[in-house]
Amino acid sequence: MKFLDLTKVYIRSGDGGNGAASFRREKYVEFGGPDGGDGGRGGDVWAEAVQGLNTLIDFRYQQHYFAKNGRGGAGRQMTGASGDDIVLRVPVGTEILDEDQETVIADLTDVGQRVRLAEGGNGGWGNLRFKSATNQAPRTANPGHPGVERTLWLRLKLIADVGLLGLPNAGKSTFLAATSNARPKIADYPFTTLHPNLGVVAVDGREFVVADIPGLIEGAHEGKGIGDRFLGHVERCAVLLHLVDATAEDFVADYHTIISEIENYHDLADKPRVTVLNKIDALDAELRAAFKSELEDACGGNVLLMSGVSGEGVEDVLRALWRVIAANRAAETETVEEEDGSWQP
């Protein structure tokens, strides 16, 4: 299945049905009076987050979504049938943006969450509604209200516990393949990964989800190499795993390049990070110690050593990630409990 994380859709809610102007025509009923029914209501357009989707590719092939119009009213006080709603089923983590691509209309982060994007038009009144003491035989009926037509953007931001960061060829896909059942493309050249991948990782009997995004380049936060869209996929993560290639010509400069990008993209710099010097299988013990010390001086914190190819240090990295994830989940649970306990019936 192809991956698509940004697409445009055109929606229109249904028009309301027209009210009817009708009079009773039964034999032997001398003064039948008005009996026109109201028009039916137009259908709404909804968006719903569903399980089992992780791409917006379906919206590439169908971009227009129109709800049904309401039926017109009829005699004998019969109200027209309401138009059927239409539901856009989107992956969890989808943001719905206005036509300007900046105004967020809704953010669907939970399975089953729904939002109405366009409300159907009300049905028009039949002439029965206009009967009064001074107007016993009104011939007036209202037309239905028109529906709403909108152009919207759908933007998917993957929901994962861990987001992988690093320059192209830093070993992110190798790490994901070594620790999960995900099978991203792996090759010895930059930009092997062209779209985000998700994998479920297990350590010590516990599981969490890792998102591997394509390698970032300088200027990614401004959209270079569509890096701003890639960074959006790690916005919701509890922790960022920053992989630094130990075999790079200047791994400290590489580290600062990524840090500069996340500091310039929203609030990513405030997220917890685990910094890892990767590909240590290519280094001897002396170089490992020297490079680790040099990178720790640059980042001002602890640096873990790992090789995704040989598996050395992988479990230590996973345990470090889990500690942050567990603390984040505990904090979220505590917040929910406090909110629930604050309300009194």
What are the SSEs and their pairings?
Elements: E1 6-12, E2 45-50, H1 58-61, E3 64-66, E4 86-91, E5 94-97, E6 104-108, E7 114-118, E8 149-156, E9 162-165, H2 172-179, E10 197-203, E11 206-212, H3 227-232, E12 239-245, H4 251-263, E13 273-278, H5 285-299, E14 303-305, H6 314-342
Parallel strand pairs: 1-3, 2-4, 9-11, 9-12, 12-13, 13-14
Antiparallel strand pairs: 1-8, 2-7, 5-6, 5-8, 10-11
Written account of the structure:
- Helix content is 22%, strand content 23%.
- The chain is an alpha/beta fold.
- The chain folds into 2 domains: 1-156, Distorted Sandwich (Spo0b-associated Gtp-binding Protein, Chain: A); 162-339, P-loop containing nucleotide triphosphate hydrolases (Rossmann fold).
- The strands form 3 sheets. Strands 10-11-9-12-13-14 form a 6-stranded mixed sheet, sandwiched between helices. It has a 5-stranded mixed sheet with strand order 3-1-8-5-6, with no helix packed on it. A 3-stranded mixed sheet has the order 4-2-7, with no helix packed on it.
- A hairpin with a 2-residue loop joins strand 10 and strand 11 (206-212).
- Helix 4 (251-263) packs parallel to helix 5.
- It starts with 5 loop residues before the first strand and ends with a helix.
- Residues 186-193 and 220-227 have low confidence and may be disordered.
